[in-house]
Amino acid sequence: MTWAFSLSAECGAKQVAAEQFAQYFDGLSYLFSNGNASQCHTAIFQDIEGNWWCQVCPSGISEAGIEGSDIAYQMTELGIELYQQLQSAPPFRYALVGVEVDEFRTYSELISEGTVPRFPGLVLAEAVWQSLGASTLFQPFSTGYVWCPYEGEVYKPLMVSPDLKNKLSELLALKCVS
């Protein structure tokens, strides 16, 4: 199963907005602190509401999720780079970096919640933020945008290790017996 790390941005109802966003990111390259390189590839698609998205997928990063602290570190390093580029990207309505964030909320889902969902790293156009009540959890990101600051990617050993899951199950079973 693929667990893609990406930047996903919802660009509104016009395809050209997603195309411009994609052109901005397509081919950008990054050099990790460990010397490995990554290059961004983009794809645009339309959601069920007719709004256009751009997904920015960096190469050279795990597609199996966060299987270790070193991968969490690399994804966080790359996430910071993507957010830095996002600060001067073409217009979008909202965006998020992380594992499996493609089409994380449609626009109507986002605004129907009545309040701004707390996703660390969520970047909103100020107009969207205002329409959702201008939560004080958000801080300035760039001209015309606010964000809930990015917290980085997290390695959770119990999510990826069958051995640790078994040990925890055994511990819980023993605790229930005593």
Could you spell the SSE succession in H and E letters?
Answer: EHEEEHEHEHEEHH
Number of helices: 6
> For the residues shown, what is the average pLDDT?
88
Task: Report how far the terminal alpha carbons are from each other.
Answer: 39 Å
Please summarize what this structure is.
The chain is α+β, with helices and mostly antiparallel strands and 178 residues long. The chain contains six helices and eight strands, in the order βαβββαβαβαββαα.
Task: Please characterize this protein's 3D structure.
- The protein has 6 helices and 8 strands.
- With 178 residues, it is of the alpha+beta class.
- The protein has one domain (5-177).
- An 8-stranded antiparallel sheet has the order 2-3-4-1-5-6-8-7.
- It is globular, with a radius of gyration of 18 Å.
- The protein starts with a strand and ends with a helix.
- The mean pLDDT is 88.
Keywords:
single chain; 178 residues; alpha+beta; eight-stranded antiparallel sheet; 34% helix; globular
Annotate the secondary structure layout.
Elements: E1 5-12, H1 15-25, E2 29-31, E3 37-46, E4 52-58, H2 69-86, E5 94-99, H3 107-112, E6 123-125, H4 126-131, E7 139-142, E8 145-147, H5 157-160, H6 162-177
Antiparallel strand pairs: 1-4, 1-5, 2-3, 3-4, 5-6, 6-8, 7-8
